[in-house]
Amino acid sequence: MSLRIFDLDPTLRPCEGQIWDRVKGYRYWKGELEKNEGGMEKFAEGYRIFGFNRVDKGYVYREWLPNAKQAFLIGEFNKWENTTPLKPEGFGRWAVQLPDKADGSTLLPHKSQLKVRIESNDGQWFERVPAWTKLAWQDAGTMLFNGVFWEPPAAERYVFRHARPPKPESLKIYEAHVGMGSCE
Fold it and tell me: What does the DSSP 8-state code read for residue 4?
């Protein structure tokens, strides 16, 4: 089997092995997504599954951490301690239920800062801003970013005042930067 790209651009022939590695990797992961996630289109709707999502009487936080041995949600809400473990759900998904408090308020206050602390399968520990965070703030002292739990109270939420504009009939390209990704 051959790829047409090699006929169109023979200078790629020396890289054929690496290109085929990429093609095989793509095909493998596409198959995995179809098998485990319901297809590429469904997987692209990850925001409905990952990050912080409201459920009955609380939130569920879910992250895709395929090489994690263990993971913890840390932040101001738990004094940055490993007291809120995520549990594996399969296919690299990890999640934790965050029930509302007895008074009905959320466990994570609006604007509270947080991260995910992860131990990888090879024993290394590191912290990451949640991939699906809606907002991140930079610490002026360390220059590092923290994720921010952004769920403003109803009275503070932005309300659109105008109807959504109609979808254009054709694509409009605002700006293009040809060559910015290469030396030429």
Answer: H
